[in-house]
Amino acid sequence: MASLKEKIGYGFGDMSSSAFWKIFSAYLPIFYATVFQLSLEVTGILMLVTRIWDAVSDPMMGIISDRTQTRWGKYRPYLLWMAIPFAVAGVMLFTKPEFGETGNTVWAFLTYILMMTVYTGINVPYGSMLGVMTEDSNEKTVFSSFRMFFAYAGSFIVLAFWEPLCNFFANLLGTMKAGETLTRDPQAWQYAMMVVGLTCFLLFILTFFMTRENVKTVEKTTSVKDDLGSLFHNGPWWILLGGVLFFNFFNAIRYAAIPFFFTTLIAADAHLSFFSIDFLFYAGIFLAIGEVANMAGVAMTTPITLKLGKKSTFLYSLIGLIVLCIAFYFVPTTGTGAYWTLLVLQVLISILTGIISPLVWSMYADISDYAELKFKTASTGLIFSSSSMAQKFGGAFGGAAVMWLLAAFGFNTEEGAVQSEEAIHGIQLLMSWIPAGIAVLSAIFIIIYPLTTKRMKEIGEQLKEFRK
Fold first, then answer.
1. Count of alpha carbons within 13 Å of 237, Cβ hemisphere only?
2. DSSP letters of 186-253?
3. Which of 346, 378, 411, 427 is 20 to 30 Å from 286 by CA-CA measure?
């Protein structure tokens, strides 16, 4: 039985990486479009190309980490080695140089590729650690729940404070303009990322010192070609890969669209009252409240999956997401009642995505066990990197799709521009029918996923004999 300290320490790692990831997902598109001043079309290409590279590099990192041998284990040392590059690359990503239009575009591509490469270098080994921290399938779900709980806690903090932090530095620099809800000063964004980067560095260091690799898997005696061959012949891996890819595509579409939704459809002075507390209704608080709801969903995951099983829990949650996203389309965007309705829908959607998120990692841990039994060798890093690959492919196509669709709908990125009816309707679709359709595709894959609770119990018993 793993200790509480290990579970909390493991959670700190995704608190760090998720804080970065949520900033990329929610604010990097609008940063490039309105602060960095790239065109929507170029921004879409940038997000697609760099994240495809990032996704392709994940299996490479999985193969490398599977073959790493140190006194700290296979995967854990990368938390120490990559923590500083992780923070520095994040700051570079949110830096706007004065190299002219072409030079700045090259800078954007290079720094995004660098950030995603470093993210792979630390996040793939971190995710792979779940496969070697415990042998128990149910405890893997507990570890995964701790991971996602802390991930959403970190996301809540960074999303709630990102816009105020950027605006704080803009006020400090004297560049905040009257009527702005979010500053367009690039230096303010850079300073805000310095604060986030330092915090994330410290969290990864804590993860390194508070965790251990407790499971000794079969040593690698196969070639990279054999590992890839066994992966490509792993049916459950392909099926879950498809389900996860579309689930992450769903998340990426919504996250990238929300800041545009608020800056376009929600009034800059929109407020809500809660128990006599008046607060501004803006994209950051909308996202942050969603993260709290995600945490509630994570807390529900273990008891629900113990009752229903992982596959059924995943599927029922996707069905709920489809219904709620369609309902989002029919809610008006003005008035206190409408604001509360939008917020309630965001909470419900976030609870369901919170339930699914730890399942993804726990189900990949199950696939790792299945592969070790079927192919007689452990490729934990390679298998877990495939989940990260699906996440990043989903993010790549989601972020790029939002930019290209906004361009197709005629969205105007100029400061103070009045948006056309077509652009406004397009943003509404990006928050409703489009993610609903993507969730349907994810559900189709999960319906045919074969590793049920009964099957995993059989695999666990056979593995105990194999590992002796």
1. 25
2. HHHHHHHHHHHHHHHHHHHHHHHHH------PPP--S-HHHHHHHHHT-HHHHHHHHHHHHHHHHHHH
3. 411
Low-confidence residues of the chain: pLDDT under 50: none
Written as one string, the DSSP assignment of 40-69 is HHHHHHHHHHHHHHHHHHHHHHHHHHHT--
- Assess contact for 291 and 153: CB atoms under 8 A: yes
CA distance 142 to 359: 10
Residue 185 is classified by DSSP as -
Q: What is the pLDDT of residue 288?
A: 84
Give the integer Cα–Cα distance in Å for 31 and 80: 30
* Residue 32 DSSP one-character state: I
**What is the per-residue pLDDT for 47?**
77
Residue 272 φ/ψ, nearest 5 degrees: -130, 150
State the burial class of residue 416 (Cβ atoms within 10 Å of its Cβ: 0-12, 13-18, 19+): exposed
Q: Distance (Å, rounded) from C-alpha 21 to C-alpha 14?
A: 10
Which residue carries 């609770």 as its tokens? 453
Q: Is 73 left (phi over 0), alpha (psi -120 to 50) or beta?
A: left
- Burial category of 460 from C-beta neighbours within 10 Å (exposed 0-12, middle 13-18, buried 19 and up): middle
Residue 293, class by beta-carbon neighbours within 10 Å (0-12 exposed, 13-18 middle, 19+ buried)?
A: buried
Q: What do you get for the CA distance between the two ends of the chain, in Å?
A: 19
Q: Which residues contact 435 (CB under 8 A, 6 or more apart)?
A: 250, 253, 254, 321, 325
Task: Say how many C-beta atoms besides its own lie within 10 A of residue 270's C-beta.
Answer: 18
Return the pLDDT at 65: 85
Can you name the residues that pair with 274 across neighbouring β-strands? 277
As given in the structure block, the two tokens for residue 222 are 């196969």
Distance CA(65)–CA(73), nearest Å, equals 10
Please tell me the predicted confidence (pLDDT) of residue 350: 93
- pLDDT at residue number 467: 59
Of 239, 253, 284, nearest in space to 266 by CA: 284
Dihedral sign, CA of 225, 226, 232, 237? negative
How many CA atoms does the CB half-sphere of 219 hold within 13 Å?
2
Residue in the block written with tokens 């997000």: 47
Q: Are 443 and 322 in contact (CB under 8 A)?
A: yes
Q: Report CA 215 to chain centroid distance, whole Å.
A: 27
